[in-house]
Amino acid sequence: MQNEITGASAFLALLRDEGVTHLFGNPGTTELPIMDAMPDYTDDMSYVLGLQESLVVAMADGYTRASGRLAACNVHVAPGLGNAMGALYNARFTNTPMIITAGQQETGHGLTEPLLYDPLVPIATPVVKWATEVTRLEDLPRIMRRAGKVAMTAPTGPVFISLPGDVLNDRKGIDLGSRTRVDTAMRPTDAGLEALADRLLAAKNPAILAGNEVVTSDAFDEVARFAEVLGAPAFQQTTAYGSFFPSEHPAFMGALSRNQKEVRGILEDYDLLVVIGADVLRMSVMSETEPLPDGMPIVQIGLFDWEMGKNYPADMAVRGDVRETLLALNPVIGARTDHADIAQKRLAAVADKNWSAKRARRATELAADAETTPIRSDWLMLTVADALPDGAITVNEGLTTSWNLLQFLPLRERYDFHSFASGGIGWALPAAVGVQIAQPDRPVVALVGDGSAMYSIQALWTAAHLRVPVTYVILNNQGYRIIKQRLKAFHGNETYIGMDFEDPPIDFVGMAQSMGVAAERVTEPGAVRAALEAALANPGPNLIDICVERSV
Question: What's the rounded Cα separation, in Å, for the pair 484 and 474?
């Protein structure tokens, strides 16, 4: 007979064998069997406590996005899953591979409608790749193995498992099986590559739109080489939540905004849009103007086939791993020796308007704001970017203050930058903890608006508890500035009801210190750089509360 094992112990053993090294969680009564078994697994699996379930998922999301490794998080029954939904919704957009589980009332007990009960699978289903409930201990290995495989198979994403208490407490001799990973690192056929090269070289003035699959397929260098051999200016996708193209490369033009008219005006200069693993012009606020110019053809390369032709027809749609496809495609284009001179001339033509040129001009202009108070947003973003040490990772959720951050922050590696993808706020404070756990040898700086920070401020406790050296920069304008701006722009209304929190003012320094985080307040521009340098040099988490402009 096989050795007997409890459901909870089998659950942890299966996570460990799937490659999980960190279980992010917030336990409740239904999760106590897991916590009872946890001491037997702490040699190679850490339990990371978050003080609310949305933080738990955001920390796991940050960890996985900064490492590419599978993460797991456990929340508490229906209310806990409800709390987690906003963060899980964000993970859906970034295709973050994670296994999220929730303890559930014992099988059959839910029929009596006890406290905290509701069917969990229907709650999770809309925002995950797969959701199920375990009803027998014998099925747990099959379900866990399937969950790991589904989460890690491109396009990757979160999966959900409901764990009833009777299954976790049950004890049987079961076979835990072994894990499955699907190799999706595929590329087009040789004939397909030649046809793709023919289509790309037929364009007189192509542009590249780079997105998240550059990160997930580790194609940061390859997409830069692609821009060189094709001779095409490159833009980051409109939701620039990652490091999708090297900023200082001569081909890089910057990130496209989510202003339809502005994007359309930029793209009208080109005759082909080459989409490399990106969202195709995803917007937020509705506009009568289409961001894609009329008749502009699109070529798409990537594994996320749902995105191909979703809103705009694709002239060519190539399903393949971005890195493997570009590794094969770049030499095919490079072999067309008659094109090399054309490619060089195209990139030379944008030398005075690429990212580096625009940054230099804007930096000169912003010198005039070096002594202005309240501190100007763009000047602050330039100063922060210049003060960051080599190898720093930036986590961003600053909305209006950091709107132009990517105009100044050089991205040099695929894990250099992380931002929220769904539009829902409260992600960055806890996500920065996960990023720092994943990258312990790199400094992490999180830029967070005061409104966003208050959605998840208790993440500071976890940062202090783990002594992770994250530097939090609170961009404090004492309100929801973006909502004020839109109320004025869309409705001509400057009566801002429910958009300020200045009476009483929020004491971020006091809150941070109460949770064990070193903190200081900065009101003068001349003190910004010194405060950043001191925080980065101080072990453990630090917070700088910076008073920024409030103008609408």
Answer: 19
